[in-house]
Amino acid sequence: MTGAAKVLTGGCLCGALRYEARGEPVNAGYCCCGDCRRASGSGFIPFMGFASADLTVTGQTRQFRSPAARGGEAVRNFCPTCGGLVFGGVVGESESHTVYAGSLDDPSAFRPTMAIFNRQRPDWVVLPEGLAVFEALPGQG
Amino acid sequence: MTATRKAACCCGACSITTEGEPILNGVCHCDNCRRRTGSAFGWSAYFPDDRIVAREGELSVYVLDPADPERAQRYFCPRCGTTLYWKSGAFPDNTGVAAGCFSGEPLAEPGLSASDDKRQPWVVVPESWGRMT
């Protein structure tokens, strides 16, 4: 091996909820689903997927559960102090987590490769060139 | 006819209702908006305080700078985490609403890219928009 493994760090607005993600994300992209748009109050959420073994979270989280597109529940974790949205999944239970890239200490390190739920993308959200675009989830159109 | 619009958090426990059109409708790429949303930018629509016609639900407040509380106060739903609206010292008689939370009568699309110097290399905004640093 040469060099150190890639480590991405980030956290909420006030800094009480922090994480460290190791290695390359298993996926990265724009999610334009209605839930992401409303949770963030923005046009989409940029996401990165990590295996739970590659993510370490410190600080208190509060969880919000909503119906997931794949069935079951989607869980969002936010900071109870500042409300910053940080990641999805349940620490200690989920096999993988979705980290919201806006929470990165260095967001320029984010490299989106796909856009999901493109059918719900607002017209004014312009996708970067070169993304694989899915109207819903990969495998669903 | 004057448009009345309701913005609600993700879980629907909290809402704010506005009347008329925003005085400012844009996205902001600053670190603060980015961390608050987990997104690339915040989408803000500012309305004069007297055009806020209803508020429902109990919101938590986060004061950005305790030494200067008037600078920015963020109101978020303690149940789902959505920051629904805020007050900013830059717009003292106005309320900023998280515009992605509006439903029903569509709000015009944003036309301004604020803190554009902080825009991430992977974010594209329409050519027609104004830019502000």
Structure description:
The complex is a heterodimer of chains A (141) and B (133). Chain A is mostly beta strands and 141 residues long. Chain A has a single domain (7-133), classed as Metal Binding Protein, Guanine Nucleotide Exchange Factor, Chain A (Beta Complex), CATH 2.170.150. Chain A is 5% helix and 37% strand. Chain A contains one helix and eleven strands, in the order βββαββββββββ. An eight-stranded mixed β-sheet of chain A has the order 6-7-8-9-4-3-10-11. A three-stranded antiparallel β-sheet of chain A has the order 1-2-5, with no helix packed on it. In chain A, strand 1 and strand 2 form a beta hairpin. Chain A is globular and about 35 Å long. In chain A, 45% of the residues are buried. The model of chain A has no long low-confidence stretch (mean pLDDT 94). Chain B is mainly beta and 133 residues long. Chain B has a single domain, classed as Beta Complex (Metal Binding Protein, Guanine Nucleotide Exchange Factor, Chain A), CATH 2.170.150. Helices cover 5% and strands 41% of the residues of chain B. Chain B has one helix and twelve strands, in the order E-E-E-H-E-E-E-E-E-E-E-E-E. Chain B has one helix at 31-37, and strands at residues 4-8, 15-19, 24-28, 42-48, 52-56, 60-63, 72-76, 83-88, 94-98, 102-103, 112-114, 130-131. Chain B has an eight-stranded mixed β-sheet with strand order 6-7-8-9-4-3-11-12. A four-stranded antiparallel β-sheet of chain B has the order 5-2-1-10, with no helix packed on it. In chain B, a hairpin with a 6-residue loop joins strand 1 and strand 2. The longest helix of chain B is centred in the first third of the chain and has 7 residues, at 31-37. Chain B starts with a strand and ends with a strand. The interface between A and B is large, with 43 and 43 residues.
